[in-house]
Design a protein that fits this description.
54% of the residues lie in helices and 12% in strands. With 271 residues, it is α/β, with parallel strands linked by helices. A five-stranded parallel sheet has the order 5-4-6-7-8, sandwiched between helices. Strands 1-3-2 form a three-stranded antiparallel sheet, with no helix packed on it. Helix 4 packs across helix 5.
């Protein structure tokens, strides 16, 4: 697992909070001090919270479940897309589609629509359409890809959400809360850490700050996926050994039966 230490977080600027007048009193336990009217986050507590979140994320990945990453802030979009893709997890970096979790079947229909357009384009069904109609369909496909392309493999509700800036993504957080889906979140000094299950106190505006936290968390997810793969390989090997043992036993039984057959015939002749 990628271990994050105090110095690494300090160098990435994770300790910078918001102006004092914008703070949320619920963040008081995670604030170290105030400097020039800006709150400074206690990075010792951040290290502990990152480790807690990373371990929980590792277990979710190890069980084969999906974690949905959410970050629609311009400065963090690219890094979130890159890190989530590296561990094959879905992500939302454009506008959050309202009802994406609470009305998941409708979102799945939109994703299927995208797949149907691809299918019809490939089999030549659209070849007879006018340029105008084809352009309209292409634009529709591009819009769907932009908003939903990154969640096309999400066939069921995610088992957890990882949110950058829980204030900005409040709709996503509320939908997850309503469905009982655990939420991991990077919380700045203007946020309420009680709104999420795993709060990581840190600067949620700086790209470097977000990246170093994601490195640790995605490293843990990758570790969980590797352990899952190893366990599956061990199970297959055990099954193969079990089948070989059963087959060997059956073969030995057959050989014994063939060996006993002549003796049985001799006994029958003697009688």
């Amino acid at each position: 697992m990628s271990r994050t230490n105090f110095d690494m977080l300090l160098q990435a600027g994770c300790h910078f909070g918001h102006l004092r007048r914008k703070w949320n009193p619920a963040m008081a336990p995670y604030i170290y001090t105030e400097r020039n009217g800006i709150h400074i986050i206690d990075l010792h507590k951040t290290v502990v919270k990152i480790d807690e979140a990373a371990e929980a994320l590792k277990q979710i990945a190890k069980s084969g479940k999906k974690i949905l990453f959410v970050a629609t802030k311009k400065q963090t979009k690219d890094v979130v897309a890159e890190k989530a893709s590296s561990v094959n997890m879905p992500y939302v970096i454009e506008r959050w589609p309202g009802g994406m979790l609470t009305n998941f079947p409708t979102i799945r229909k939109a994703v299927k629509k995208m797949a149907n357009i691809d299918k019809l384009m490939n089999d030549g069904t659209y070849s007879n359409l006018s340029k105008r109609e084809l352009l309209q369909i292409t634009r529709q496909r591009a819009k769907l890809e932009k908003n939903l392309g990154s969640i096309s493999d999400l066939t069921r509700l995610p088992s957890a959400l990882f949110v950058i800036d829980i204030c900005k993504e409040t709709i996503a957080v509320k939908e997850a809360q309503r469905l009982g889906i655990p939420v991991f979140g990077i919380v700045d000094t203007n946020s309420n850490p009680n709104d999420v299950d795993f709060a990581i106190p840190a600067n949620d505006d700086a790209k470097d700050s977000v990246e170093i936290i994601l490195n640790a968390c995605c490293g843990a997810i990758a570790e969980g996926l590797e352990e899952r793969k190893a366990e599956k390989a061990d199970e297959k090997a055990a099954e193969a050994q079990g089948e070989e043992a059963t087959e060997g036993k059956a073969n030995r039984g057959a050989r014994k039966a063939r060996k006993d057959a002549p003796e049985a015939e001799e006994t029958a002749d003697a009688e």
